[in-house]
Automatic annotation (TrEMBL):
Extent of the signal sequence: none
CDD domains (alphabetical): OYE_like_FMN_family
MF terms (GO), sorted A to Z: FMN binding; oxidoreductase activity
Pfam families per record: Oxidored_FMN
Name of this protein: NADH:flavin oxidoreductase
GO cellular component, one term: cytosol
Domain NADH:flavin oxidoreductase/NADH oxidase N-terminal, residue spans: 8-338
Domain of life according to the entry: Bacteria
Length: 366
């Protein structure tokens, strides 16, 4: 236990322990994207519950098509920054660091305060259906294939959002490059069918990620913690694999490091899942082999298996999703030897909001 509970240096952060709250969308901001009191209470609970690092839910970055869900928080104007500032201060007061996850929805677009038109690398709809827990939409819209101007606008949004994150007092930024959202769509040969310099070879498909990281690094300075979450799978396609396999994923991790990322955050159904079209390595295995970049691992880490992950990935932070949702005080419970509850998906019904989670908790204690 001591190996996960001691304080660690992670990129430029001194953290109380190796547990991170995984980013989880709660669709509980005001309709205009302003973070509110309920969100402040929510994030503070994880800090008080012992997580060394809190990573926020995916937060939109521009007043174009970046927002993907109704009541998703943004970080694009003064009201958003003020809302986040309160949250950051409360998390800090409870002793944790906090990173904001910056997200552009791309074609996984269900609701947006500013436009009805999704944009994406190509005019390709996601597979399957929109996610019921994030809204009432039943069909995907066909996205517009992004022009070069659209790409520049999206990058500029990430850059401005990063400056706003600094103004709000965040300790770092995690770009959402996973789970089928915009930056991940560019990597994917399903979503990205472009024939220009942003499509085709992996080097081209990586271009927007690299340009975004470089552009952010240029404005936030060398000491501000910046990283990116990476997966192969999308929430709308749990089986997607890069045609370039393990070597391709290594190329991605090296490219984001060379562009200026301090850390990568791998996410998969299970940290150890053999992820690639060949061999038996996981995303985390390959990322851990790359020198010069810090690592967060995620995927089914719990109260019993975490010591093994901590030992096998000795430099990594362990990000916890569903178990944290069920137990905001997961880390404190581990310290105290208390029972850890399983997550009940009823907590996210009919929508994945904080209010529905609270209603669920009231029902349990009634
Ligand atoms: C309700 C919910 C919302 C999520 N929202 C996000 C998100 O905004 N950004 C993200 O990168 N992952 C999101 N995820 C994925 C989690 O961060 C995590 O990767 C996933 O739950 C697997 O980790 P776990 O096995 O510890 O739960 C979400 C997961 C859940 C359950």
């Amino acid at each position: 236990m001591s190996d996960v509970m001691h304080s660690v240096q992670f990129a430029n952060q001194k953290l109380a322990n190796r547990f991170a709250l995984a980013p989880m969308t709660r669709t509980s901001a005001e309709a205009d994207g302003t973070p509110n009191q309920a969100m402040a209470d929510h994030y503070e609970a994880y800090a008080k519950g012992g997580f060394g690092l809190v990573i926020t839910e995916g937060t939109y970055t521009d007043n174009g098509a970046s927002q993907g869900y109704g009541n998703q928080p943004g970080i694009i104007n003064d009201a958003h920054v003020a809302g986040w500032k309160t949250i950051v201060e409360r998390v800090h007061a409870a002793g944790s660091s906090i990173f904001v996850q910056l997200m552009h929805a791309g074609s996984q677009f269900q609701a947006n305060h500013y436009t009805d038109q999704p944009i994406a690398p190509s005019a390709v709809k996601p597979k399957g259906s929109p996610l019921g827990i994030y809204g009432d939409q039943t069909e995907w819209k066909t996205p517009k294939s992004m022009t070069l101007e659209d790409i520049q606008f999206a990058i500029a949004g990430f850059v401005q959002a990063s400056q706003n994150a600094q103004a709000a007092g965040f300790d770092g930024i995690e770009l959402h490059g996973a789970n089928g959202y915009l930056l991940n769509q560019f990597l994917s040969t399903y979503f990205n069918q472009r024939e220009d310099s942003y499509g085709g070879s992996l080097e081209n498909r990586l271009r927007i990620m690299v340009e975004t990281i470089k552009a952010i690094r240029a404005v936030v300075g060398k000491d501000f913690t910046l990283g990116i979450r990476l997966s192969q799978v999308a929430v709308t396609d749990p089986d997607y694999q890069l045609p370039e396999g393990e070597a391709g994923f290594r190329q991605i991790v090296e490219a984001v490091r060379d562009a200026g990322a301090d850390f990568v955050h791998t996410t998969d159904g299970d940290v150890r899942r053999a992820a690639f079209i060949e061999g038996d390595k996981s995303l985390a295995d390959v990322a851990a082999e790359v020198q010069g970049v810090a690592l967060i691992i995620n995927g089914d880490i719990d109260e019993t298996n975490h010591p093994d992950f901590a030992a096998d990935y000795p430099q990594a932070l362990l990000a916890i999703g569903k178990k944290a949702l069920a137990n905001p005080d997961f880390v404190q419970r581990l310290k105290d030897g208390k029972e850890i509850m399983d997550m009940d998906f009823a907590m996210l019904q009919p929508k994945a909001t904080i209010a529905n989670e609270q209603a669920w908790r009231r029902k349990q204690s009634a």
